[in-house]
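Homework-ish question, so no full write-ups if that breaks the rules, but can someone show me the predicted structure for this set?
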Amino acid sequence: MNAPMLNYADAPTQYLDVEGVNYAYRSLGKRSGIPVVCLQHFTGTLDNWDPIIINGLAKERPVIAIDNTGIGNSGGTTPDNVQDMARDAIKIITALGIKKCDVLGYSLGGFIAQTIATTKSDLFRKIILVGTAPQGAKALGSFPHLVERAFQQRGIEVYLYIFATQSERSRKLVTATYQRLKERKSDRDKETGMLSVQAQVKALTRWGTDPVTIKLGEIHQPVMIVQGSNDEMMDSDTSLELFKQIPNALLFYYPDSAHGSFFQYPEIFVEQANFFLNHFE
Amino acid sequence: MNAPMLNYADAPTQYLDVEGVNYAYRSLGKRSGIPVVCLQHFTGTLDNWDPIIINGLAKERPVIAIDNTGIGNSGGTTPDNVQDMARDAIKIITALGIKKCDVLGYSLGGFIAQTIATTKSDLFRKIILVGTAPQGAKALGSFPHLVERAFQQRGIEVYLYIFATQSERSRKLVTATYQRLKERKSDRDKETGMLSVQAQVKALTRWGTDPVTIKLGEIHQPVMIVQGSNDEMMDSDTSLELFKQIPNALLFYYPDSAHGSFFQYPEIFVEQANFFLNHFE
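A: Not a homework solution, just the prediction itself:
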């Protein structure tokens, strides 16, 4: 038996056919234990996970990152609503042979994780939500304008506009994350196409404006919520709302950070996430 | 050289004369490194620190717990305001030969830590604030009524009224803390006398009602803030205010917990505090 793969940069992209759609994923980490499935942010692909975070989690458990429908190297058409994205994520996780897993849902991935937790609640053992918001979060109503302003920037500034604050420290730390995302040289994902981006914008906006249907009070799993001090996209204060509504949640705020909170402080996140997944009940 | 003392139950009470007042303290843990000085909550003495927390910190650093003026086995008259309590704490720390330390300020001890951080800012390297609030926190205005209701309870219920929520889980976990506080059989502190309790009630109430003089924005150290979801004494939401005003703060909320947040989850607190003190800048 080979040694477990512990370096995300070396994890090959694998493919899985689900009902005629070809899905891309990467798998690494310990061979035994409950896997943590990683659900990515708006526009993000398999190449947008900070390797410090994936590698840190992989030391203690299996880690599986997936591209949802129409994202990165996955086929199919990206849905324009979170409910259908959650349906697709369940299909992929099930097709991978997983009956129970932990989940790391980041931003849009956190919406999907909340949706699955309240519609197929036996799939998850524990839930990590980063840089996300409850349904009805007002900030999402103006998401298209935020995206428009971000896309007016150039190069790395598009990334920093969303993921960093304007402080020197935050920009420096998130620039380092951005550079880590470029370390993988081959077998990279395609960038997410414009039609998929547009569908995601619609889904994110709807999360803020559609009627609230999700009952967070019914989430029975242990939940760990992480947010930055200044996440304009989600409005940082809405993480306190998540915390208050979910019965058994830890809430961790990181300083001087925006939507990229855990990318800015990957070491502390890995420490907290591994402790949560290993020990918190 | 003897092995380091790592068990708080075995740490003898020591005494130190400062300007004619006899102060009680206990010291344990690693012999080298920056010590963490522990400042206790309303009515609490050296016997009110959860040994899991003290022992967990002592594995990685020197730990020194002190009784402030008029508390437990310390002599002198307890001041009725936080400013004088901070002045006394500085005197004790200085008399112990400490030029720079970390601080764990719990509740009233957190008020003292905030005061020292903004008046003698070079004393602290890093700051942990648990179950505390900024100056002007409205909940403190009704502190005497809360104390009155708590003191109407009997036995362990006095403790649970303040430190636990009404849930079965919280009561069970905080009951376990309460029992750990009784493990030490000899060399215990005197309980804090009624005159000192009255002075502390005045100081706590004033913290909520006096004009705000402390500039939290000037705290330049890394700060870790911990709070429970339902701390009626401090109003849990005021920890988010601390977080927003202190430039470089981590904020951790624990679920289904009241004023005894870190006593309810001592293992996760020890993990987070040691990581913060060892690694966070």
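Now go work out the reasoning yourself. Hint: The interface with chain B takes residues 229, 237, 240, 243-244, 247-256, 267-268, 271-272, 275, 279-280 of chain A (CB under 8 Å).
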